[in-house]
Amino acid sequence: MTQDKTKNWDQYGEYLALDTLLDIQKPWSADKATGAFAHDEMLFIIFHQTYELWFKQILFELDDVQMRLGRPVVDDCDMQPIVKHLHRVVEILRLLVRQLDILETMTPQDFTDFRDHLKTASGFQSLQFRLIETRLGLRREDRLLFNHCQYDAGYCPASQTAINTAEHETTLFDQIDKWLARTPFVDRDDYKFWDSYRAAVHTMLDGREAMARHAVDGDILDRELAAIARNRTKFDSIFNKDADTSSSPSSSWRLSWRALQAALFITVYKTEPALQGPASLLGHIMDIDAAMSQWRYRHALMVQRMVGMNVGTGGSAGYGYLMQTLEKHRIFTDLFALSTYLIPSHARPPLPQTISNQMGYRYGTTG
Amino acid sequence: MTQDKTKNWDQYGEYLALDTLLDIQKPWSADKATGAFAHDEMLFIIFHQTYELWFKQILFELDDVQMRLGRPVVDDCDMQPIVKHLHRVVEILRLLVRQLDILETMTPQDFTDFRDHLKTASGFQSLQFRLIETRLGLRREDRLLFNHCQYDAGYCPASQTAINTAEHETTLFDQIDKWLARTPFVDRDDYKFWDSYRAAVHTMLDGREAMARHAVDGDILDRELAAIARNRTKFDSIFNKDADTSSSPSSSWRLSWRALQAALFITVYKTEPALQGPASLLGHIMDIDAAMSQWRYRHALMVQRMVGMNVGTGGSAGYGYLMQTLEKHRIFTDLFALSTYLIPSHARPPLPQTISNQMGYRYGTTG
Amino acid sequence: MTQDKTKNWDQYGEYLALDTLLDIQKPWSADKATGAFAHDEMLFIIFHQTYELWFKQILFELDDVQMRLGRPVVDDCDMQPIVKHLHRVVEILRLLVRQLDILETMTPQDFTDFRDHLKTASGFQSLQFRLIETRLGLRREDRLLFNHCQYDAGYCPASQTAINTAEHETTLFDQIDKWLARTPFVDRDDYKFWDSYRAAVHTMLDGREAMARHAVDGDILDRELAAIARNRTKFDSIFNKDADTSSSPSSSWRLSWRALQAALFITVYKTEPALQGPASLLGHIMDIDAAMSQWRYRHALMVQRMVGMNVGTGGSAGYGYLMQTLEKHRIFTDLFALSTYLIPSHARPPLPQTISNQMGYRYGTTG
Amino acid sequence: MTQDKTKNWDQYGEYLALDTLLDIQKPWSADKATGAFAHDEMLFIIFHQTYELWFKQILFELDDVQMRLGRPVVDDCDMQPIVKHLHRVVEILRLLVRQLDILETMTPQDFTDFRDHLKTASGFQSLQFRLIETRLGLRREDRLLFNHCQYDAGYCPASQTAINTAEHETTLFDQIDKWLARTPFVDRDDYKFWDSYRAAVHTMLDGREAMARHAVDGDILDRELAAIARNRTKFDSIFNKDADTSSSPSSSWRLSWRALQAALFITVYKTEPALQGPASLLGHIMDIDAAMSQWRYRHALMVQRMVGMNVGTGGSAGYGYLMQTLEKHRIFTDLFALSTYLIPSHARPPLPQTISNQMGYRYGTTG
Fold first, then answer.
1. Which residues of the sequence carry a binding annotation for substrate (chains A, B, C, D) (predicted)?
2. ipTM over 0.90 threshold
């Protein structure tokens, strides 16, 4: 209902609950008598409050993405919102990295002036950030211990329950693993992607070997043949079913063998209409993993600058600890590792027409 | 007081008032029966809430900067925090521009799905943003009318009072004008910056004229002489006391004549120790003006993308209106215009030793 | 051929032609005798050289995109590279905006120290930038005159020829217009998108009218009915074939009527598999238009800061001129304007099953 | 000399040597017969060429900064250009990080299509980047071996000579160390900063101990006292002359003891007029160190995405190697570590008036 357009502008404030929102910045360094407090504590509070608002938004997007990916069959029309919402998470994470530029207008001395007042409060303790990590797929057993304790030992029972609940629900990692494993084209009718790709790899390496034998000899040939042999071994390791985590405990893969195949298939044939969305989805997952990692590193550097070799506020997460999480807390490294097994497009095996047809749109004339 | 380091992590949540902060996102598109609402409205709410938190931070920094600049004499030790806090405002404004990348992950169709529910609520109505503009120095008479009404006609009495109060307090523009006008070195003992600079300009232009007469003739000489004559007129316009806004109503300068002189002096001799801070301060003021302008334009483009030729939510600020404010609502254009009157360093008049000495540190051996 | 891995690292330099690349920065402010020059001129040169390299990359991406879009039928497998390469152009343009942060570490006084030496050289004269504008679709008649002359009057014959050639080739705007106009689903079998959408709009407005009559009366009802009537008029203007530019000279649309329909269709039904790519393509075109515009404005502000009210180097493009191009030189405003005609998803007419089927993948079970 | 303003626009091209600049992109994947090449190789080339141009600019700024800092006495008027040029380096490094967004529009498969053609050419081999590292202060003995060889083993003799020359010149690290060590106020007349600061630290810790004994007892008191004792030990370690690298081989400090004192003094009393520039300088050095580190990490993640677990082009720098350099190749960690020894402002010892006076400007009335 259109209303008088110059009235009631304060609906904006009501809509955003500004009376409340702008009244919950309470510096702990404030002197009880005078109310004076360390100037930069306000920045510290507002900085972290905006972080928490964005964390809420990330969890909200994950709700949607996981609801769609969690269905037995992912509807083709869901690919657009899934990709859109993952892209939004990427943009938010990039903003969170960029936002540290503002916090770094605070000097270490400025921070020292209110640091003691923070007692045990620390950004390291953000429950929502823990939930994001868990929902994405970071497992309890993958997490670094903190002071010989589990990472959630310091939370109140309600927070611990929230974490436990998240840990027992299906994570985005697991959903993507299952969704990949269901990809219909990898093994369909007479077509076996793995066989086709393996043959192409061998043809490519045979060609290199023949060219080497033709062009060089002696030590140079020996080195070249050794390099080709290492390449064969490298590729064989992925063609082997034992690459599966379940059957090979020593494997570094976390994705299932079937999912790995599908991810490679999607990567290699990404221009096929039915694979454009999935390829985009995988790209955004890698963007999220990379953005989280960059945030961790940027945060670690900021902590080092602010407190040097001291531990963080809350007695917790000093620079050394944070740097250990840098690699340990990554989730989707398998997708990055997959690039190890790519071959040039000219060596790529062409798709059988019947498979390619199935991945096209119905309105077209072929098929 | 050090506490058990793995306990009480929830103090972080208490410190940031997370229970409240994360409970005040109430989409208006929510269906009363099902609670379902347009997915992207959550982003819209959280986006604007983070904006309002940053606006509060900007106002908080302005409080500090204006308190220091408002004193009869600005303490030399205040220059560092003033510059630091202005720089922080710049970084925040740049983040607010950058943050629009996130909002643009929402498509126009997504926005259409909850736009009607917003009724008259509009970001255009942010009271804090109006206060920032006013505090910086945007005058009521400089503002574009909106629907033939004053820009604050739609606010409730309390908000209007806040605006009126801000309008009647000394703005940052006025403080900078007064602070510049007090700069001691511009006219000190026998030294008159204006006389010195005018003489240097004339010497420079005389040199150009002589070179032209020596090198060319005919039409080319005429054109060159005409160009030099235009240059003389240009410079004379600023050397003339009538450049003052008070005595020359037609002037486009808002800064006082004395402040203009000082701003040029600081710009030209910026490496002198006592001018490094002031030069940095003026640079940050220009950064703020430019960042506000970029935000206005980016915002206008976003509104155009989301609602096309429609007016904005709240029946208010469509693309056309916003584009009109782009130039009209700028505040510190005088500082940009000042570059019109710069001359190359080699033509710059050297400072008398006595003046230069006064701008050095006491510990040095000279003076 | 694998080589000794610690040898021949200088191939990197050979590959990038570094000997040449790093030897073509020749400051014009250099003193013939001493070689000394204004320090910041090096930044000015390198800044513009990186710009020109990125312009070359943009033109290179346009080559590819236009080659694919210029075919009589755009292959479905081409959608992925088209979108990828347009996205790359967006990222480059955003970098070019961001890169101005570096140039602004130069103060106006620093610039004044070598500005006179630049004579008529000006970034305003970049031939590649003119070609990018023309290739995207900026027409000669849309361009602002410069000093009462055509925009390319100052170029040498070879450059003018390059511009003329680009002007006579099919632009990206024209290709997108044609590609949109060919969209098969807008008018297929018994389905007419326009009829379907018009009916939905009328139903929606009828609903609003009925609700208004039920809920309010008197002046409020009159105002509400007037608003609904304006809405009807607004929508009728686009449903009318006379919206076509060819038949209605007064129209502000540059896209053909048929292309407008298709663009709206794609926007509205963007989750359909066959429309996900096209919707993404249109989004990137808008991103390009917005990024170009932001660059123009940021550039204009930088020019104003560096030279105030003077004209630019090369006697050319001062702040006032640049500001006039801001709106005048935009190309794809039609896509922004289209949002004027969106309706909420709940009012959107469902697609007939036969149409929806055709936009799905062949492997699915339906259809 | 003003010229006809619509003529000779091609001077812009001449100024920037565009004929040459835009003609040195020669993809190695180009087919000899057809000229066809992998589309994304052009991006790869232009991306690295812009990097090398910016590296040249960084070296050019270092020339200036090192020339000024290398003088026996740094002129007070040099502080402004030093800070300005270091800030420019920071902005360039941040752009180089940001610029990776463009390279990541290339998918790993796209890269695979021309990777083999690059043979041993690798960004890892940039001579200019090695020179930047060395000039900043990265020592040969601090560098990771590469394939059991020195990092410059693969370069041609001319490049090796350039590296050796840089290694034997005074680095920025050494210049800053010496400049800090010369700071006059740290030990002047009767004032000894170290004694004054140590006394303040002990007073602060005594206060904490008294408060603890008053407020708690038992285990809690024991823990608190142990924490205070650890704090005393921590501070004593820096007050001890043996913190000097020369006298204590086990120390982790690279800065001299005297320089550490001065850096802490500047950090603590940063608002004093004579310390504002130095404090800003130290801040920018930390920004450079942090930006280099962020670039290294972002680059490592990009390499991992593009080539997985393979080694890099040129058989060189795979992800694992790059990650090892992340901490090992940092240069100015001492400045970050210094924050370990900050105390709140209220506990900070006031400067004697005579010392404070010397750091003020001569024009003032005090002193």
1. 115, 313
2. yes
- What tokens appear for C341 in the block? 């005609």
3-state secondary structure of C189: coil
Q: How far apart (Å, rounded) are the C-alpha atoms in residues A79 and A141? A: 32
Cβ <8 Å between B147 and A5: yes
pLDDT at C26 over 90: yes
In the stretch 307-366 of chain B, residues with CB closer than 8 A to chain A read 314-316
Summarised one tens digit per residue, pLDDT across range C282-340 is 999 999 999 999 999 999 999 999 989 876 544 456 888 899 999 999 999 999 999 99
For residue B211, what is the DSSP state?
H
Residue count of chain B: 367
Q: Which fold has domain D38-192+243-358?
A: Methane Monooxygenase Hydroxylase; Chain G, domain 1 (1.20.58)
Beta bridge pairs of residue C188: C191
Q: Please, what's the b/e burial string for A216-242 (b: 16 or more CB within 10 A of its CB; e: otherwise)?
A: eeeeeeeebeeebeebeeebeebbeee
The string over A68-97, giving b where at least 16 C-beta atoms fall within 10 Å of a residue's C-beta and e elsewhere, is bbeeeebebbbbbbbbbbbbbbbbbbbbbb
Q: Which residues contact D35 (CB under 8 A, 6 or more apart)?
A: none
pLDDT tens column, A208-247? 999 999 999 999 999 999 999 999 988 988 887 665 444 4
Cβ distance A231 to D315 under 8 Å?
no
Domain B40-114+124-192+243-358 classification at class level: mainly alpha
Q: Are B307 and C336 in contact (CB under 8 A)?
A: no
In contact, B70 and C301? CB cutoff 8 Å = no
Tell me how far apart the alpha carbons of residues B135 and B1 are, in angstroms, rounded to a whole number.
Answer: 41
Q: Sign of dihedral through CA atoms A126, A132, A135, A136?
A: negative
Q: Is the dihedral of CA B336, B338, B341, B346 positive or negative?
A: negative
Q: pLDDT (tens digit, 9 = 90+) per residue, D70-129?
A: 999 999 999 999 999 999 999 999 999 999 999 999 999 999 999 888 765 566 689 999
Which residues in chain C are closer than 8 Å to A75, comparing Cβ atoms?
none
A299 annotated ligand binder: yes
In sequence order, the β-bridge partners of residue A188 are: A191
Residues 142-171 of A with CB under 8 A from B: 146-147, 149, 153-156, 159
- The 3-state DSSP class for residue A353 equals helix
Structural contact between residues D137 and D246, judged by C-beta atoms closer than 8 angstroms = no
Apex A103 CA angle, A98 and A104, nearest 5: 90
Interhelix angle B273-307/D79-103, rounded to 10 degrees, is 20
Q: What is the distance, to the nearest Å, from the Cα of residue D171 to the centroid of all Cα atoms in its chain?
A: 12
CB A21 within 8 A of CB B49: yes
Put simply, whether A102 touches B (Cβ < 8 Å) is yes
d(CA C78, CA C58) in angstroms, rounded, equals: 18
C-alpha–C-alpha distance, residues D255 and D244, integer Å: 8
**Mean pLDDT, range D301-328, rounded to an integer:** 81
- CA-derived radius of gyration, chain D: 26
Min Cα distance D95 → chain B (Å) is 15
Please classify residue B328 by burial: count the beta carbons closer than 10 Å to its beta carbon, then call 0-12 exposed, 13-18 middle and 19+ buried: exposed
Adjacent-strand bridge partners of D361: B361
More confident residue, B113 or B33: B113
pLDDT band at C366 (very low <50, low <70, confident <90, very high): very low
- Identify the CATH assignment for A39-192+243-358 out of 3.90.1680.10, 1.20.58.480, 3.40.50.720, 1.20.1250.20: 1.20.58.480
Query: What number does CATH give the domain C39-114+121-192+243-358?
Result: 1.20.58.480
Pick from C59, C90, C102, C298: nearest CA to D102: C90
Q: Mapping DSSP to helix (H, G, I), strand (E, B) and coil, where does residue C149 land?
A: strand
**pTM of the predicted model as reported, rounded to 2 decimal places:** 0.95
Residue B313 annotated in ligand binding: yes
CA-based max dimension of chain D = 90
Residue C209, Cα to own-chain centre: how many angstroms?
39
